[in-house]
Amino acid sequence: MEAQVLVEIVVPMATALLMLVVGTDVVVDKQLRALSARSVLLCTAAQLAVLPVVAMAVATVAPVGSMVAVGLAVVALVPSGSLSNAYTYLARGNVTLSIALTIVSTFAFTLLFPQVAALASMEPGFRQVVDGITTNTAMLKLVLVLSFPVAAGALIRHLFPERVSQYRRHLERVVSVTVVVTLALSVHAGWDYFVGKFGDILLATVLFTLGAIVVGYVTTRFLAPRDSSAVIIEVSTRNGAAIILVGQGLMANEAILGFACGFCLIQAALMLAYCHLIRRRMTGPGSRRVADAG
């Protein structure tokens, strides 16, 4: 019962609150100026078209269980997460571009979910998983929990900019507490699955994340360094809550919670290490110090 309440009520509500606050960070003119056709095209194409191939390759080559392979299929169908913005800041990347790309990714995966699912189903190993997803239901969940709160937050920022600035720190504290509590409850509910499948989840997450970083590097060779790091991080980071929303029904509630939490925690360690390396490269001896983004 605890896992069911988390999957059906707590996680969606906490995610919607988080995305609402992310939306209040959107200044439309500023984000539009940060976007370039090349960065949007590269980032979106890599996520929509190439990540399913990476996930399928990992599921095929790595000796992981069938349920972890199902989790990887779901990972390929969800947008990037707002954590990518924090990672980009730590890496001294272009945070404004990162926020804009997160918004584009959220709306692209939501509005194009049927097409993304159809593309993923072209991978033979993922066809059965994708066929088990009720596309309209998954799309509605993504709209209500991801896209709509972002749009609402941006509207609130546009209508009441001074109030948003005044209460910004309070909003961030509320969201931080909510996310930490939700994550703790989710880890607790999915703990047995996480521990039992830790080796498989670790292997799948490491291989997928490294593969996604390589895809990011290949597709951003001609971008400026700060823009390149923002796109690479955006391509690599997946939305844990969206994994739970889309994966519900494909795996037991405890299993999807354990997989999603395990994936996000392991990926967080990998991305923090990556950010440290990028930051040292961009600010170390012999290179021009890059000013803090944002």
From TrEMBL:
InterPro entries, sorted: BilAc:Na_symport/Acr3 (IPR002657), Bilac:Na_transpt (IPR004710), Na+/solute_symporter_sf (IPR038770)
Annotated source species: Thermohalobaculum xanthum
Source organism superkingdom:
Bacteria
Has UniProt tagged this entry with the keyword Oxidoreductase?
Answer: no
Pfam families referenced in this protein's UniProt entry, alphabetically: SBF
The UniProt entry lists the main location of this chain as membrane
Question: Keywords in UniProt for this one?
Answer: Membrane, Transmembrane, Transmembrane helix
Q: Which residues cross the membrane?
A: 6-28, 40-62, 68-90, 97-118, 138-159, 171-189, 201-219, 231-250, 256-278
List the PANTHER family hit by this protein, alphabetically: P3 PROTEIN (PTHR10361:SF24), SODIUM-BILE ACID COTRANSPORTER (PTHR10361)
Q: Where would you find this protein in the cell?
A: Membrane
Q: How does the protein's chain sit in the membrane according to the entry?
A: Multi-pass membrane protein
Keyword match Lipid biosynthesis: no
Any GO CC annotation of this UniProt entry: membrane
Name-wise, this protein is Bile acid:sodium symporter
